[in-house]
Automatic annotation (TrEMBL):
Originating gene: pgsA
Known function: This protein catalyzes the committed step to the synthesis of the acidic phospholipids.
Protein name: CDP-diacylglycerol--glycerol-3-phosphate 3-phosphatidyltransferase
Organism of this sequence: [Eubacterium] siraeum DSM 15702
Functional pathway: Phospholipid metabolism; phosphatidylglycerol biosynthesis; phosphatidylglycerol from CDP-diacylglycerol: step 1/2
Record's catalysed reaction(s): a CDP-1,2-diacyl-sn-glycerol + sn-glycerol 3-phosphate = a 1,2-diacyl-sn-glycero-3-phospho-(1'-sn-glycero-3'-phosphate) + CMP + H(+)
EC numbers, comma separated: 2.7.8.5
Entry similarity comment: Belongs to the CDP-alcohol phosphatidyltransferase class-I family.
Membrane topology: Multi-pass membrane protein
Pfam families assigned to the protein according to its UniProt record, in alphabetical order: CDP-OH_P_transf
Subcellular location: Membrane
Gene Ontology, cellular component aspect: membrane
GO MF annotation terms: CDP-diacylglycerol-glycerol-3-phosphate 3-phosphatidyltransferase activity
Amino acid sequence: MNLANKLTLLRVILVPFFAFFMLAGDIVPYSYLWAAVIFAVASITDTADGKIARKYNMVTNFGKFLDPLADKVLVVTALICFVELGWASAWVTAIIVAREFVVSGIRLIAAGSEKKTVIAASIWGKLKTASTMVAICVIIILHILVDFGAVTAETFPVQIISDILMYISCILTTVSGIKYLWDYREVLKTDA
């Protein structure tokens, strides 16, 4: 296994630790800070694995499969933890998660078609990913500030800011999902 794939695998391994610290607020002091550190390390591995794979010609089918899967597992885990903690609405999370399943399904169908079509990320997909990652980071940071007593949820609009960020992510997720369905409708027709 090459270095790029090891970094991707590390991101998957970090997910349960991230989830533990996100949900261990009652038993682990500053658990959100630990979760943020783990999320940051996982995000760095996401950037590093791709750069290393391309620069040193380490691109593998395993990496092509595992890298987007690792990203989705990390993001979905964060969003499910947010719902559990009351930081995000379940319906917003459901839309974001459903889009990930739909687009992954379209990619699988396209890759398995006669043309072996590889679907690259669109600008809308990249905006969706960026907005979701920013929302996750900002929401965790806001709760770290509450945890440290720098702000209080009563005097600072933590939930309003969190909701706005999640709504923006949800809108971009919906738009990118609809665009994928529209752009690759022919792939779906030929395999129907």
